Amino acid sequence: MKALKDPKTWMPAAAALLIASTDSDQRISDWASEHNPVFGSQSGAQAASDNLRTVLASSAVITSVMPPGKLDALLPGRTGSLATASMAALATSQVTGALKDSTDRERPNGVDERSFPSSHTAAASTYATLSAQRVDGMALSLTHRRRLKTGFHAVAAATAWARVEAQAHYPADVLMGFALGNFTAVLMQESLQNSQRPVWFGIDRDRTTDTFLFQVGWPF
């Protein structure tokens, strides 16, 4: 499976396992939240993680709605890559939430027990990977495509580190979040590319309760 073999999936996941198996997780977290070498303070790191995630979310939307270049659109039948971005983001959010509920890891700051994995980082990684995928389909030079893709993933990495400096997550939390976000985005892209059926949307009205149901489906 391409999603598992992707270095941006297995490398941070392996690093998370290595760090979690030693006392490095706690030591790095304590040092980062005490010294704040990049963002200056825990409040600054918190604000930065929110802002950087928003930047990547915007980039995922912008690159999704931009017309493709020499390559085809991401979804079969040119359904639109914005659907890919939406479903990947939703899938990442659902999986991250389920893992938080099942692991109950306390945050470094003790606020709650939803530390693992980092949802900020997972979302940022998903957006970065989606943006990078879309850039590959644009009529840009190889150099420009590489710079943009590196920039997207660098912002995702900065988001991850900001969560550590903010004392909201341990290093293992953000590393696994990065791996999860990339995995989801690549898996979604891979699944849709390998299918001959397009993504579909629908709205149905339940006359009994007088409510509307929004439905979305994609082939696997």
TrEMBL record:
Residues 101-115 have a biased composition (Basic and acidic residues). It catalyses: di-trans,octa-cis-undecaprenyl diphosphate + H2O = di-trans,octa-cis-undecaprenyl phosphate + phosphate + H(+). GO terms for molecular function: undecaprenyl-diphosphatase activity. SUPFAM superfamilies: Acid phosphatase/Vanadium-dependent haloperoxidase. SMART domains: acidPPc (SM00014). Residues 79-189 form the Phosphatidic acid phosphatase type 2/haloperoxidase domain. It comes from Candidatus Tenderia electrophaga. Its EC number is 3.6.1.27. It is an enzyme of class 3 (hydrolase). This is undecaprenyl-diphosphate phosphatase. Residues 96-120 are annotated as: Disordered.
